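Lab notebook, bench 4. We co-purified these components, and the gel suggests they stay together. Before we commit to crystallization screens, I want a quick structural picture of the whole thing.
Request: model the full complex, all chains together.
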Amino acid sequence: MRIQCPYCGERDVSEFAYLGDAHVERPDPGGAEASRRFYESVYLRDNPAGPHIELWYHTAGCRSWLRVARDTLTHELLGVELARQQPGAAPAGGAGEGEVV
Amino acid sequence: MRRIGVECIFALAKQQMAPRGATTIPRMRYSIFTLMRQALGAHRGWPAAWRDAAPKTGYDVIVIGGGGHGLATAYYLARVHGIANVAVLEKGWIGSGNAGRNTTIIRSNYLLPGNNPFYEWSLRLWEGLEQELNFNSMVSQRGVLNLCHTDAQRDAFARRGNAMRLHGVDAELLDTQAVRRMLPFLDFDNARFPIRGGLLQRRGGTARHDAVVWGYARAASQLGVDIIQNCEVTGFLREGERIVGVNTTRGTIRADRIGMAVAGSTSRVARLAGLRLPIESHVLQAFVSEAIKPFLPGVVTFGAGHFYISQSDKGGLVFGGDIDGYNSYAQRGNLPTVEDVCEGGMALMPALGRVRMLRSWGGIMDMSMDGSPIIDRSPIEALYLNAGWCYGGFKATPASGWCFAHLLARGESHPVARAYRLDRFASGHLITEKGQGPQPNLH
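Here is the predicted assembly.
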């Protein structure tokens, strides 16, 4: 499995550290039903079988946080962008040609 | 002689093509006497081990998932609670999931009070299982030795061993010399990971995973449970707030109570009921080497990295290590993890370097947010959950079935599984052996 880092190019997955679902948002601690919202945000996950948007950290490279779209059934990389970008702005290409592992 | 041999093969093949959907099959108790009698009949008389049932329109209980846990649940529902109007729905063939992919280790050497009684109950059930099921599951209590490599780790193992003993579970702390007497071929000269000793559970060991599935399936089927294969749940039937049945690829089936025991597929089945759970599905790889002569008498785990190994009765070394670390339903992993696992093996026993790897594969682990399982009602009436086993579900098979059957039959948790509540994440009563926080890929 290889991830196309926007700065460093296509690199093996072993260069990256995985965090998890990119949709996790920290709720407002002073807001309505904060306790329930914190429980849901900390513990509950969609965990889909298919396209998944997730956060990876390029530990052995540029140390950027990347927002990656990857299919959890096939491991095919569907798109990568820097996590600090707005979601959905022009993603870089996915895996190069050849086999998907 | 050759003609008898050929007839034997045809007879066996014919047996496997026995009429499908038969409502009854002759019961046979396996014993040396039936084996001899069958041999005299050129093995033409073996009945099918379980009925390949067709679904009825309704049951008292539906168990979704035909793996070890689901089949054990159905068996204990019938055997212990007298509830035999049960269907086990399996999307593929029974035991095709993690039950057919694990590294066969059974043990009850946990640290925390929420875990110890449960896994010990499971080990006690393992000890009587083959007699109970009249099926050879090759339960082999050859010992599980966890090696430690620093003073601090040895102290942590002493704490875990004491926790085990306080719960009445066997545990011994070995020093370097004792480990050397037991396993002289380990790398005792390794300056980076010196072997300081180990925590040994003699009653731990291995069991033949496929045979466990078949044993429970045969016993459950004989008690009247319908085992329905090639039957995937595609949705839940609701009446008001209550779930009253499932839609499947083989039709709609109603039930009073429905229990999910689908391991790594928990989130995608739960989603059909609109539920989100504290689970991430991850790939765990496992490996087997070519068959070699008896080399490793028991189960050994490396303390300076995640690596565990045993030798199967066929002679192959069965080993594994960490999960790959990212969400996956692919049932295969990637090469960096393969390298990691092999490095751990080489650091532990350099003799492995001469052995050839034969096969590798992966499963889908339901990694929970605290690394411990969930056996509880779901938030939806009549739907029950059995999930979150991470990479440790095989050893739990008997107790998981026992406790899930208890919950489905009586509506309350069994005493040894009371800590495995779904609401513990909200209330803070997490059971976290590794203390890593809500990060599933670290458990």
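The domain at 2-82 of chain A is CATH 3.30.2270.10 (Folate-binding fold). Worth comparing against the SEC data before the next meeting. Chain A touches chain B at residues 1, 12-14, 18, 20-21, 36, 39-40, 42-49, 52, 54, 70, 72-75, 101 (CB under 8 Å).
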